[in-house]
Design goal:
heterodimer, A: mainly alpha, two-stranded antiparallel ribbon, 2 strands, 1% strand, B: alpha/beta, Rossmann fold, 6-stranded mixed sheet, 4-stranded antiparallel sheet, 9 helices, 10 strands
Chain lengths: 330, 248
């Protein structure tokens, strides 16, 4: 399939470019921005699985990021290897996804979204009172250096780690689009009754997607904790974190392979990049600009950046109605 | 011949409304059975209860050797009952090929095998030229054809067709009848709801007539149109003392 090759080539080009950046750029602030971009692209893609492809818009995705961040916090401060945190985080994320997804994934319309906000608030409240999660204090990771500690003095290796995770997530999503699960999620999003009539068990397939999505976000959470070395409820469980993730998915384009990366780029360049230059004075211009861009995209291009491109390409190929008829008539 | 589907005493209550009040019907394997009745008789509700989209309040639905009443919708599909909808329910943002592939994935988990099967089904129903069109961009006749293709792709033994002829031009109706004959020739049994009797007459050997949620006739299609109970259900009872002259 030529489309697959195109995506793989694009991914390969991005890898080459970002590896060059990781080794070539000395400015640590820039590298931190690249790391943040990759982390948010992963989080956005993870969200895209359940909210974009399956159509269940979540405003509580931060709970899975928190699974990873807290797995790092708990294990590393207890003297375990941070590499184990990936496994623990994935297991915790799967349990959380199944427990919260089972009763909520079949909810229609906005009720799923409302439920995710409630679940996220509940998780945050629980984290604050569970003693071994250190309540509101959270965790401070000891400062170390090296691959076994998964902590580094410079940002280069963080960029490489995030890039590896990003590549894995993009490849998984490419496979999703060409798999039974991907077709079933799109069918369920389009029409759950018609989907059931061709034998699709909504709960089973959505739980599978939700669990996979949670595992991706949890891995991003581990990298986040290993980079910032500090985890507490506001930094990884606040509603604003979940909304940032959802905005990235929506701005980029729901249910598209490159949408979350495009959304993360807009987010990092605007929200973080502009903040570096304008936000320091405490006037919050960066938020005004970012907010205005979100409003513009929502009003003018509700399909998101990549969604708009995909539609335009379809129109050119003539798979959309009116143009196809015109092409036939000509 | 053996019965593939036997429905008895099927009842469905929506709040205070009894939409089905003891429907009985039997579908012989390999044949086309028509399910007819006036508007509001409960045809689509009966379909929903057989396909699993609705949970019957009471009664039995035997499919082959199994009791399937109340089974989840997707399980019924897996057992081999496919359906179309009276009001078409396409996967709006999927192309024709993708939608039919989704159906084919039920018994062919690999996408390549499912796509190949979908291509075959599209050629069979005559939609192959429009395979890359979006489902939402088709004409009504093609949307109905797409629904039939999507259901056929799941390899059903029994196909429930809900008014596939409604809204079609006479030429499109002839094409649809031809398609039905070819589906029967594939060995698929059909239970078909139809509002218009003329459409059904030439292809259905056996019809079941329901009115007000009850089965009022089951038998030969030609006998159905002469049956007093059927005529009454469609046209109303003769007025008392009506001598044919007094009507204004």
């Amino acid at each position: 399939m030529s489309a697959t090759r195109g995506h793989l080539l694009a991914l390969g080009a991005l890898v080459v470019a970002l590896v060059a950046v990781a080794f070539g750029v000395r400015d640590q602030v820039t590298l931190e921005l690249v790391f943040t971009f990759l982390l948010y692209a992963v989080l956005g893609q993870s969200w895209n699985w359940i909210s974009g492809y399956a159509g269940n818009i979540s405003f509580g995705h931060a709970i899975f990021l928190a699974c990873g961040a807290y797995a790092s916090g708990v294990l590393v401060t207890a003297g375990w290897s941070p590499w184990l945190a990936f496994v623990a985080a994935a297991l915790a994320a799967i349990v959380l996804a199944v427990v919260t997804g089972f009763p909520t994934l079949g909810l229609r319309g906005h009720y799923f979204s409302i439920a995710t906000i409630a679940v996220a608030a509940l998780v945050e409240a629980c984290v604050r009172v569970v003693p071994w999660l250190n309540g509101a204090n959270g965790f401070e990771l000891p400062i170390r250096n090296g691959w076994s500690a998964l902590e580094f003095a410079g940002k280069t290796n963080y960029v490489l780690l995030a890039l590896a995770l990003f590549v894995a997530v993009q490849l998984a999503t490419l496979a999703l689009e060409r798999s039974r699960l991907g077709f079933y999620l799109r069918a369920l999003r389009a029409n759950y009754a018609a989907a059931a009539s061709v034998g699709i068990d909504e709960r089973r397939w959505k739980l599978l997607a939700f669990a996979a999505s949670a595992v991706m976000a949890s891995a991003a959470g581990v990298l986040y904790a290993q980079d910032t070395l500090f985890v507490d409820p506001p930094s990884v469980l606040a509603l604003s974190v979940s909304i940032d993730i959802a905005l990235i998915g929506v701005v980029g384009g729901l249910g598209t392979l490159w949408g979350p990366a495009a959304g993360a780029l807009v987010y990092v360049v605007l929200a973080k990049g502009v903040a570096l230059h304008l936000g320091g004075s405490g006037k919050g211009y960066d938020l005004v600009i970012y907010g205005a861009i979100i409003c513009l995209i929502a009003a003018l291009r509700p399909d998101g950046i990549v969604g708009t491109i995909v539609k335009a390409a379809r129109r050119r190929r003539g798979t959309l109605g009116a143009d196809a008829f015109a092409a036939e008539a000509a | 011949m053996s019965a593939l589907l036997t429905v008895s005493g099927l009842t469905k209550q929506f709040g205070s409304l009894r939409a089905l009040d003891g429907v009985d019907l039997c579908v012989e394997a390999g044949r086309l059975t028509g399910l007819i009745g006036p508007n509001g008789a409960g045809k689509s509700t009966a379909f929903g209860c057989i396909a699993g989209a609705l949970k019957p309040s009471a009664g039995s639905v035997r499919y082959g050797e199994r009791e399937i009443a109340g089974l989840p919708y997707h399980r019924v599909a897996r057992l081999g009952i496919g359906r179309t909808y009276q009001i078409v329910q396409t996967f709006a943002d999927m192309t024709v090929l993708e939608a039919v592939t989704t159906g084919a994935l039920l018994h062919r988990p690999r996408l390549t095998a499912a796509t190949a099967h979908a291509e075959e089904i599209l050629a069979f129903v005559g939609l192959d030229a429009k395979r890359h069109r979006l489902g939402s961009a088709l004409t009504i006749a093609d949307k109905k054809r797409l629904e039939v293709a999507r259901a056929l792709a799941t390899d059903p033994a029994l196909l429930l067709l809900d008014e596939v002829m409604a809204g079609l031009t006479p030429a499109e109706c002839r094409d649809a009848v031809d398609l039905l004959r070819r589906i029967l020739a594939r060995g698929v049994t059909i239970l078909m709801v139809e509002h218009v009797m003329e459409v059904l007459m030439p292809i259905a050997e056996h019809v079941v007539v329901i009115a007000a949620g009850k089965t009022i006739f089951a038998g030969n299609a030609r006998a159905a149109v002469r049956d007093p109970a059927v005529i009454e259900a469609y046209l109303g009872a003769p007025l008392d003392g009506d001598d044919g002259e007094g009507a204004p």
